[in-house]
Amino acid sequence: MDVFVRFGVALAVGLMIGLERGWSGQQGEEHANVGGLRTFGLMSLLGALWSLLATALDHSALLGFGFLALAGLLTTAHVLQVREDHDLGVTTTVASLVTFALGALAMSGELVVASAVAVITTVLLGLKPTLHGLVERIERREIHAAFKLLLISVVMLPALPNRGFGPGEALNPYAIWWLVVLIATISFAGYLAVKLAGPRVGVALTSLFGGLASSTAVTLSFSRLGRANPGMARILAAGIVFSSAIMFPRVLVEVSLVGRPLVSELATTLAVMMVICILPGLLLLRSGGSGGEEGELKLRNPFELGTALKFGALIASIMLLASTLHDEFGDRGIYILAAISGLTDVDAITLSLSRMAGDELELTVARNGILLAVMVNTLTKGTLAMILGGVRVGVRVLSALLVAIAGGAAALYYL
Hints:
By secondary structure, the chain is mostly helical. The protein folds into two domains: 2-126, no CATH class; 139-414, no CATH class. Helices cover 80% and strands 0% of the residues. The chain has 15 helices and no strands. The chain has helices at 2-26, 37-56, 61-85, 91-107, 111-126, 128-137, 140-156, 173-197, 203-228, 233-258, 263-287, 305-329, 331-342, 347-356, 363-414. α10 (233-258) packs antiparallel against α11.
């Protein structure tokens, strides 16, 4: 019975991939004569049978010979097809080989792995238009910038000394560069999301993704759009509030990756501030219309090497200043630095204080410093919306953000 169950999983795997390939053929995305349900179902069963035969004869090399024989057959068929229609695509050929391997994997008893890989394979095959659209939206300079930074990170990070330098040994090259890569990766996720969705999409979607990259950039962009398009003031104000709400879980993620003990200290306050931002944002979005002409949101590529180096220098400066001010003025020096840092950026101070928490700083001081920077940054964005977006945008944004700050302060004091 166990063998029949494995055959059943192998057949299901082949049928799932075959369904997607057959549908793609009917939609004209692949060759019309591409294999469908029956072909892929049979290939998966072939893999299962060949695996069973290799096990029964105690000759594992048979499975490899079977795979090579199928690869030769598919290659010959592909060459003949190319001569006929000059299409060099090999996606279906590779999918066929994967299907054979998944059938063999299911017969070996790895049913969960075979099923999971089959689902991933089917999703990748079905995402062809989306993935191709993403590639078309990414510019060559962005790809080169990402490759350069990734190369430098992979090569440099293991080679950097993992110990403190400078006054109070506050500067750790390895830790600083690791923080740079961390924040650039988080920001790049939001940057890519905006690229994937396109520059002219629903304001809510753009603000959520843009907030992951830079809520300040969203505030600046949408505020200017709001002044130029008074009829869109409500929905653009909602976008700014939404992007500000994303900043709070973003800070919590950064803290969890660097200073885990701080998570429980910050979670409640940041959650309250996020919810308070989301509620007025939803009300503004509901009353603001469709926002079909929302304009463009321009974000800088966070994987540019120059941007990364500047951020690294900022983190190093804050670490050094935090250590110096704490030695000279105690906790008050940390709070002064947090307030000043919050005027422009919360990531650098968040990562710096998170790393210092528990060792150089008490958890309470690090928590209060991060929350102070978050609240100052939130107030700054509300002020920018008022100055750049005018009364229509600014009053709505500033009111929502002031309530969020008050709610966060109350949560910090009472909860």
